């Protein structure tokens, strides 16, 4: 069986300290240091679960998450605390993830103080510096979350994650609640911070149009399985898997924002009771009898490009619509 995490680690070459994931129905991938891996799929496809596992908030029932060559679940004591700080999560809805009773300086300053990342008397200056990095005027430090706009709250959520000096950030729908123009500003902030701080991101979104802008590579999930993985540019230009082809064709424009993925026929089936064989077969325009009976495995169809579709075996891989 192909070890996709191993192969992608090799594909990433000189980049060190990859994060490797083997979890969720055979999902296997690795993320290189300084890389942005976009993870895209419809709601219920398992991408948030995967993100929570990477961030240590959910333990995988099978498989494992390796960070710097250590199985995260097996770490104890100081090593476990270190890993928990080094991998941070920026959540979907800043309003519900920010404690409304805490001021901004408490929200951002609490974890670094508790974990001894900065001496207590330097915390205020430290918080001001992080707020500035995140595009917030330090004078807002005494305010409460409800006194900010959605975009500013997103920045506070990012500042809180950065305050413990992480190497790796899981962003789960971090810009989904924002207006398009604000989304672009926050995505630019993510990209700038990555440059300045040499961060690695797992960037999760239902919106391929968002993921495309920030990712080096893109992973596409469908009903708990990884169906395609490749460099962002190549995957967008030449989607291999029929599901990815549909997503690429359906990137919402500003006007059609509300009806994402409407051209993919049929409803997304229940993740609890997925169709047999290829999970995508009830909705796939290329489905054939084998697709209902046999699960396609993720195969390397070009260097660094993986796809799980029987059409690749049969030498009849379709090209982008
Ligand atoms: Fe479509 Fe069959 Fe490929 Fe699944 S395996 S994506 S049903 S052609
Ligand atoms: Mg989700």
TrEMBL record:
Boundaries of every ABC transporter domain copy: 1-248
PROSITE patterns the UniProt entry points to: ABC_TRANSPORTER_1, ABC_TRANSPORTER_2
Pfam families: ABC_tran, oligo_HPY
Subcellular location: Cell inner membrane
Molecular function GO labels: ATP binding
SMART domains: AAA
Protein's membrane topology: Peripheral membrane protein
UniProt keyword annotations, A-Z: ATP-binding, Nucleotide-binding, Transport
Family annotation (InterPro entries): AAA+_ATPase, ABC_transp_ATP-bind, ABC_transporter-like_ATP-bd, ABC_transporter-like_CS, Oligopep_ABC_C, P-loop_NTPase
Top-level division of the source organism's lineage: Bacteria
Main location: membrane
Family according to the record: Belongs to the ABC transporter superfamily.
Protein name, UniProt field: ATP-binding cassette domain-containing protein
């Amino acid at each position: 069986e192909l070890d996709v995490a191993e192969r992608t680690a090799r594909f990433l070459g000189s980049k060190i300290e990859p994060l490797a994931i083997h979890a969720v129905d055979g999902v296997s991938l690795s993320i290189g240091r300084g890389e942005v891996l976009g993870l895209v799929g419809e709601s219920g496809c398992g991408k948030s679960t995967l993100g929570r596992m990477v961030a240590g908030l959910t333990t995988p029932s099978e498989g494992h998450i390796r960070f710097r060559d250590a199985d995260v679940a097996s770490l104890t004591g100081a090593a476990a605390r270190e890993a928990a700080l080094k991998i941070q999560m920026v959540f979907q809805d800043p309003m519900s993830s920010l404690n409304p009773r805490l001021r901004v300086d408490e929200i951002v300053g609490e974890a670094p103080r508790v974990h001894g990342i900065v001496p207590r008397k330097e915390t205020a200056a430290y918080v001001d510096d992080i707020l500035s990095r995140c595009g917030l005027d330090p004078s807002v430090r005494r305010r409460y979350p409800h006194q900010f706009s959605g975009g500013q709250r997103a920045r506070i959520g990012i500042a809180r994650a950065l305050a413990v000096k992480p190497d790796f950030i899981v962003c789960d729908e971090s810009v989904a609640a924002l207006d398009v123009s604000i989304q672009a500003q926050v995505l630019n902030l993510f990209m700038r911070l990555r440059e300045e701080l040499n961060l690695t991101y797992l960037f999760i979104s239902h919106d391929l149009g968002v993921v495309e802008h920030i990712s080096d590579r893109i992973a596409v999930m469908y009903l708990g399985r990884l169906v395609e993985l490749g460099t962002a540019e190549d995957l967008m230009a030449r989607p291999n898997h029929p599901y990815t082809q549909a997503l690429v064709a359906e990137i919402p424009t500003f006007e059609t924002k509300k009806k994402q993925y409407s051209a993919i026929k049929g409803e997304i089936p229940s993740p609890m009771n997925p169709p047999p064989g290829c999970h995508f077969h009830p909705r796939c325009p290329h489905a054939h009898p084998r697709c209902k009976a046999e699960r396609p495995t993720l195969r390397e169809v070009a260097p660094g490009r993986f796809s799980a579709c029987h059409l690749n075996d049969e030498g009849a891989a379709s090209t982008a619509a």
